[in-house]
């Protein structure tokens, strides 16, 4: 019998009021049923927010360094359970073990960073314009934070949001992706084991209906969302109407630029990892490859040979390099784009179909695929596919490559391979993205630096690093006048 999981609301593991459940299956072998999870509705979200409101009252009074101590323990527990969580995560999400171990490691790094931030959370003390007056700002928590997360980083992205939100003194209601609910279930168990007061964390499983209720609930002043640009736009409209604080991290169409002076061996390793790691399902995945015309043909030949050697398989099996897509709809989308590429007259260099091996029959696998001959406006060079499909474009000058890189609606990550130090610095200045790598692929963010994108990738906020702590806290300014007289700021003292 598959296990039936529950929500965590008001300090207890409870069944959803809807009595409805969805199945969570292994994308590498859909006959493997991981469990049934609550398909929650508005009443479940309402109960979670009511309890989180009480949780906020208590948790926000705990000193920030003590909040940090609990997050430090969460980090220690993630270290203890790293292998177990990574294996379970691969089972429900599909990416290979090395990547799910990295996903847990990001959670560990984020926990330890949050723990140390408990002893900073700096405000400012500044001189006053007036005599005998003290002027300062400090950062205080906001309230209940509603967190909505995607499938591709089942642990890391929830921790990017949850740990800073909690460290700042907010309580949290999280609605994880319905594609990977088990990982957050395990994470919440660890938070409780570490000593987090139960009302400070609420877990509501479900899909769009639960997410929508969280966004529109008047008791939730802060929403942080990572997912597709279409969903983020709908959430943005709602939060604008309700005057909510909102962080959006959305889609990408990231490019790697390879100049004619680049170290081509290095660039080859980088593009294989950037394009086909996580089966192309990273927001920072390299989905466009811009090759200088002088190296275009020979680099493309080498790349195709190497891509054909990548081993698809169950991510828990030694030797697997490329796992399945997350579900049938994701593979259908890849197939639709492969058809569009052919219709638009692009050259299919390799891949372009499902693998034939009976070993992969029960999973959502798709061959690493490369199209060449794209124009900057080709749909495959403009639209996010979120799968193992790489679109190659040819360019003649650095300036042209910058124009192509910038000519999309997204702006998350970019990368330049060159040995020319001047071009490297120009790329850091001119590529219109939140992140630029030099001589490394478009993926590989570090937990202690701000992460996010420009244009339709984001809305100006950042996750990670020091910046996220500003999102989850409100600046309050305090003045204390100890002159014993009425001193009037902003008034000319002419008499
Ligand atoms: P998605 O938009 O389908 O779903 C994300 C989450 O939103 C899920 O939990 C889902 O249940 C919930 N949701 C769906 N409709 C909703 C609604 N109307 N209101 C509230 N919640 C709703 O995204 P996905 O398929 O899980 O993830 C893939 C996408 O995420 C890609 O576009 C990728 O680029 C993006 N992504 C971006 C980043 C980043 O940092 N920029 C990181 C990871 C993934």
Descriptive overview:
With 495 residues, the chain is of the alpha/beta class. The chain has helices at residues 42-59, 64-80, 82-93, 97-117, 156-167, 181-193, 208-216, 229-242, 264-276, 296-309, 328-343, 398-406, 421-430, 468-471, and strands spanning 3-4, 7-9, 12-14, 21-26, 29-38, 124-127, 133-141, 144-148, 171-175, 201-203, 222-226, 245-249, 254-258, 286-292, 347-350, 369-372, 389-395, 410-411, 413-417, 435-438, 454-455, 473-481. The strands form six sheets. A seven-stranded mixed beta sheet has the order 15-16-17-14-13-19-20, with helices on both faces. Helix 8 (229-242) links the parallel strand 11 (222-226) and strand 12. Helix 1 crosses helix 7 and helix 3 crosses helix 4. The termini are far apart. The relative contact order is 0.14. It binds nicotinamide-adenine-dinucleotide (NAD). Nicotinamide-adenine-dinucleotide binds at residues 148-152, 175, 177-178, 207-208, 211-212, 215, 226-228, 231, 234-235, 249-252, 283, 384, 386, 412, 453, 457. The site of nicotinamide-adenine-dinucleotide (NAD) has 29 residues, from helix 7 and helix 8.
